[in-house]
Amino acid sequence: MEITESIYQRVVAAKLFIDDNYSEAIDLKEISRRAYLSKFHFHRLFTRIYRKTPHAYLTTKRIEKAKELLAENKGVTEVCNEVGFESVGSFSVLFKKEIGFAPQYYRNMAWLKKQQSKAQPKRFIPHCFIESYKLDT
Fold it and tell me: 107, 76 in Cβ contact below 8 A?
């Protein structure tokens, strides 16, 4: 089944709605309404276009934003609430499952890396770049 330009544009508009409202309590019914499609048809089309379900996309969006906020040294509870998760427990479990580290550990490591990059910036610049631009001299 071919996806028409009109349908494609509506699915993209719904994806942009997710991007703009990821921190809110949005669900498939509300997102699919933005595309003027039934939630079942929208789910199939979104998954076909983006290679992940709308829920998986929303979760990925929230986790990516959480990584940014944790790297800014914000508290885990604050980040959890800011990105739209309902409980710190579920956020922590999901974050660890997706990233491989607990949010607090990720936050501490990001802070440590930032401090190291300030103290020793050359450690964070690729060697080939340093060589090309003669930054060692």
Answer: yes
Structure tokens at 27: 């669900």
Distance CA 22, CA 67 (A): 14
Interval 79-97: pLDDT, tens? 999 999 999 999 999 999 9
pTM of the model: 0.83
CB 54 within 8 A of CB 28: yes
Q: Is 2 left (phi over 0), alpha (psi -120 to 50) or beta?
A: beta
Alpha helices in the chain (DSSP H): 5-21, 28-34, 39-50, 54-71, 76-83, 88-99, 103-119, 127-132
Q: How many CB atoms lie within 10 A of CB 134?
A: 7
